[in-house]
Amino acid sequence: MCGITGILDLSAKHPPERCTLERMTAHLMHRGPDDDGFYLAPHIGLAARRLSIVDVEGGHMPLSNEDGSIWITYNGEVYNAPLLRKSLCARGHIFRTRGDTEVIVHAYEEWGDECIAHLRGMFAIALWDARRERLLLARDRFGVKPLYFAERNGTLAFASEIMPVISGAGLARGADCASLQQLFTYGYVAAPRTMFVGVQSLLPAHLMVVDAAGTQPPRPYWSLEFPRDGAHTRITHAEATEKFSALLRESVELRLMSDVPIGALLSGGLDSSSLVALLQDLGGGRTSTFSIGFEADTHDEARFAKVASEYLHTDHHTLTFGLRDFDLWPRVIRHMESPQCSATSIPIYMLYRACHEDGYKVILTGEGADELLGGYHWFAGDARVRPLLNIPQPIRGRVAEHLPIGSSVGRRVLARGTHDPVQRFALWLEATSEEERAVFASPTLTPSPLSLQGRGDGGEGESLSNLCPLDQFLYLESQSRLPNFINDEVDRMSMAHSVEARVPFLDHKLWEFTATLPPHFKLSGGIEKRLLRAAMKGKLPDRIRLRRKQGLAAPHALFWRQAMLPMFVRDALSEAALRESNYFNHSVVSLMLQEHQAGRADHSRLLTGVLTTQLWHDLFL
What we know:
Elements: E1 2-9, H1 18-26, E2 35-40, E3 44-50, E4 63-64, E5 70-78, H2 81-90, H3 101-111, H4 115-118, E6 121-129, E7 134-139, E8 148-152, E9 155-159, H5 162-169, H6 177-186, E10 200-201, E11 206-211, E12 214-215, E13 219-220, H7 237-254, E14 262-265, H8 270-283, E15 288-294, H9 302-312, E16 315-321, H10 329-336, H11 345-357, E17 362-364, H12 369-373, H13 377-385, H14 393-399, H15 408-416, H16 421-429, H17 460-463, H18 469-479, H19 481-495, E18 500-502, H20 508-515, E19 523-524, E20 527-528, H21 530-535, H22 542-545, H23 556-559, H24 567-572, H25 575-581, H26 586-597, H27 604-620
Parallel strand pairs: 14-15, 14-17, 15-16, 17-18
Antiparallel strand pairs: 1-3, 1-9, 2-3, 4-5, 5-6, 6-7, 7-11, 8-9, 8-10, 11-12, 11-13, 19-20
């Protein structure tokens, strides 16, 4: 696991210099505190900061093949590297190290660009083919590991984070206001956009080639395929449970590849508890687990984490989150390099800090199960709303408040929803209301369409029309919120503390199988993740296995109702500060804050977005 950087001289006028690479990698010390490395040639410079986990002594990067014609700098883990190594050795390749980095180099020698499709894991790769003067950039299927790039004046810069890219490319720092509008509409900024003008994020499951012909458009090397409605695999629930269990177990076992100890997060929910149960079984030892409780009872799951820990016999560590911990916000935004409309990053930051302080470099975590098996409330909520969409829209709008369809979000979706799955999914995700978005200083900003892996071209609804409704939403989730919000947040907050977060539920073999299954195996009768619940029967206590999802959330609504907000918040939201950044209308921000503090409305997501944007502006621009 590393932080990577690099520069490619496209014009043959600006050869990379070591001092530039050193300046870029200095931004990534937290991602790789154990080692650094540099490779310089006439047109290319590669660098890495290393977090030593596999082949601690021999895994130095950048790394080359035997004759130095291929060089790589790489962030991540290829979990099927031992199998690939065996196959490549049989084809005559000779290895000098035990790590997975060299496996990628020889895989490229054997299969060219197609080698990326052979990799099973999480990764961001920059590979230089010196003979062909050709750079290959690639990112894993679910965007677990980030990779950013920018091109300016004949120089292409790329890195694991944005600040090194801006430094390497010599970009002026500026806010992308369209991305800011996207954040306030959907709750995240979708790749290839970032919050910085001129800096792009390589799309998940894509690779990009830069050679003498120029920078080629990124192209996909993998896509998640669901069968058309009614054409799901004919399989019994028992058979599906057995296969799912085997694949999940295999995924966890693959992620035990490490020369350092492995711990796990344990919230007391189904997902993390399932992983810890498998980790305990496979690891044969007493696992260290970490959870965070909340002083606010509405958010606290600590008692369930205790139940799971005692049942699984783990060495458990519990943190407590209080309103005072919101003081971490500026530090968190510095690592996120982006504002947010939620505050979950703060408790996640605290969890990985605790893991680091206890000596752990590798942690298993349960993200991905909800996206895989329909665990979020909008999956079940949409099933309740869909049958009512045939009611004429004007009537729906009037009666939505009185129908038993669950949450206020569900009533909003019923009132405004359509049969188009993309538009309806976007309504479920809506981070702030249209009325709240009047907070923007510029009235010309309008939300862009929901972006799926950066396309946002309006054609997704038609291409999804042959899928069953649940599969439509599962696909949309995997292409939007999962890579752009969930995975980004986990990567940023774990690497802030030099911890590698491994995500067994985001194994593409597991997803390819689960996508073929009938939808009622995943969600039925309002019960989500049925397959995982069945798979864990006898492995977890029913109090954990059968409990409904609560999820991690920081109590930012309570934070914004405090009588006296912290000084850094008052400074950031002052009229002078808001006028200087010029993103928001001070009078509207003040009105929203007054309404929220009086309990007349919940504007917490809007206020959090405004505050973190102001913090981001002060930190980076």
